[in-house]
Amino acid sequence: MAFNEFFMWGGATSACQCEGAYNIDGKGLSAIDMLPLCNKGQLRTPTSEILEDSFYPSHQAIDFYHYFKEDIKLFAEMGFQCYRMSISWPRIFQTGDNEIPNEAGLEFYDKIFDELAKYKIEPIVTISHFDDPYEAEKKYGDWNHREWINMYYKYATTILDRYHDKVKYWMTFNEINTLMYYPLFHGMEKNHDSMQIVYQMAHNKFLASAMTVKYAHEHYPELKVGMMLASTTIYPYSCNPNDVMKSMEREEETFFFSDVQVRGYYSSGALKKMESYQVKIDIHKDDEKILKEGTVDFIGFSYYSTSVAVSEDEKIEVSGNFMKGQKNPYLQVSEWEWQIDPTGLRYTLNQLYNRYQIPLMIVENGLGAEDTIEKDGTIQDDYRIHYLREHIKEMEMAVSVDGVELLAYTPWGCIDLVSASTGEMKKRYGFIYVDLDDVGQGTFNRYRKKSFYWYKKVIESNGKEL
């Protein structure tokens, strides 16, 4: 049997893409709350204030805040053994630097965890998933300022203390390596000035993560605390050595983040890369000791597609999760031009496990597509079933043939939610359809898709029936 009795099947969401209730029960504004809807193929940019004539998808999202009991009941009907979710930082500390946490926010997550426990669903909690407190951003700027470390540590230890007996698995930051692409998000090239900011932000997040891991290990040794990567497996376009070196260089940008959090120090290659950008990180006296003492227990990662690197930028470019890359002529693409590569998942699992030899979790994987409700009320999403089936097959090979230690599989957007990059609802991932359009109009009714019943059988058979 490929998957043992301890392997967990489930699904994944984030607070800022599903909860809504952005100003209810004392919640403060998050960075995501300042991102209005944009068109397909564009990247959302924040506004400095909430504009009356703009629609902000996170403000209501799918209103999981009020529908969580109904939604968790549907997760249980599918047979979920785990649920990967996040806690909204500004729901707990509205401005980031509050002295006292918001009790109403803490009580909301108590209710979530109690509801999950009722159905014996194990929560896997991301502490920070792209929703930093907006007031803290205005006051302190980006994460290159060290004030963020103490704010995060206070928030993280508060929720560890509160929920340690309800949550065993934690991840410190969602897709931490997307920091490397922030300069591009803001229209900047990777030059000396922008990379100084990026590497300082990374260093400060590494410290915040390590301090949190160390605290959890010392106070609650039964907890497992991991990190989370956006996997960016990149093939060389050809056997041209220059293409091979280009792909290695691009992948090392990702491994930089996992190397530090798993090993507890900066590799010689990372130090050389910083030197090439003339980057000098502000490292305090005990920073290196903190990194060494706060290494993670497992790696969670998102996997949607792979990319291709070419030494001469003359090929066709396609989209991906937070980054663009060259077109792979052997792969098909989704409606959003993300390359579909099931075999790449097995390759990625082997890459990470062979490099680090610690357990892995696939905490995001799925197909964003436009779904249609048929006249008989069904949603025939065979394309999603096919995508997930082929990826699970490769996941099984990585475990049974290659010996990868895999703890869990939680497909992304197990219930439809708003897209992080564009804010659209029509880019749907879920097994559960939510009746809302891109501008928040709809009944909020939930409907089971064909994939709902398919995934239920997958879980019941522990991956045997695909």
From TrEMBL:
Species of origin: Anaerocolumna xylanovorans DSM 12503
Homology family: Belongs to the glycosyl hydrolase 1 family.
Record's keyword terms, sorted: Glycosidase, Hydrolase
Biological process per Gene Ontology, one example term: carbohydrate catabolic process
Pfam entry (one): Glyco_hydro_1
Protein name: 6-phospho-beta-glucosidase
UniProt KW Metal-binding keyword: no
Cellular-component GO terms for this entry: cytosol
One Gene Ontology MF term: beta-glucosidase activity
Domain of life: Bacteria
InterPro entries reported for this sequence: GH, Glyco_hydro_1
